[in-house]
Amino acid sequence: MQHGPAVRRRKLGAELRALRTSAGLTSGEAARLAGWHQSKVSRIETGASGVKPPDVRLLLDVYGVADPQLRELLLVLSGSGDGDDRHHWWHAYRGVLPPTYRDFISLESQASAMRTLETTVIPGLLQTPEYARAVTEAALEGASEERLDTLVEVRLARQDVLRATPPLELSAILDEAVLRREVGGPGVMARQLNRLVEAARLPHVRLQVLPFGAGAHIGMTGPFVIFSFSRTSDLDVVVLDHLTSSLHLERKEDLRVYSEAFDALSIHALSPEDSLDFIAGAAAGA
Question: What's the rounded mean pLDDT across residues 278-284?
């Protein structure tokens, strides 16, 4: 269990090592072609040291990697602000967003799929502006209006991943408490629930409700997010949010445990069709 940047260095290093091996090069040969000392390649591959985007581009050229999407993903892992602006819009908010939040957004923007269990609030990607503001105000009591406006703006900008081509595949399991907790007042909550109904009808969004009647379940330990990447499963990661930071779990055994937990919760939850009816009923009664 580590903070995001360390995880990303190790994942980037592991992927670069795999690409070097696929290219049939030893670390010494790769270093010679890049004009470096062999120890630099070794440090990069083990995640012992960070690597700048220009060095990543050089290694990808040495290894003959032409796939633009894979190059883009690896450059994002190195902290690059180059490439498609859609994938790097959050750099404009560096002075406002903490590093852990920027890490989360960068993973979210590059992931092909996201599985999430939410036990307290509507997922950020599905929040209305009013709901997002009410949640942000509660989380940052005393924050200035300007800061609240900016954070809500960021929350809404994140939602573009659901309108991208191709869009992020979102699977969310919502504890019933998420739907029952009145955030922002009855009107705000009613509009938020109606927004969920609209989202649930999108082909790339799968929503399930875990009703109170399901009793005790493994998700009671807390919410989590699993990001998956189409280019390589080795970059998949679990993110656990805390009040002041986020933790990333990268080990295959951790990914397996959380994937199995999500699958188990999906079985205990209402079907997507029944969940849609449940949410619509909650909206009608809000």
Answer: 93
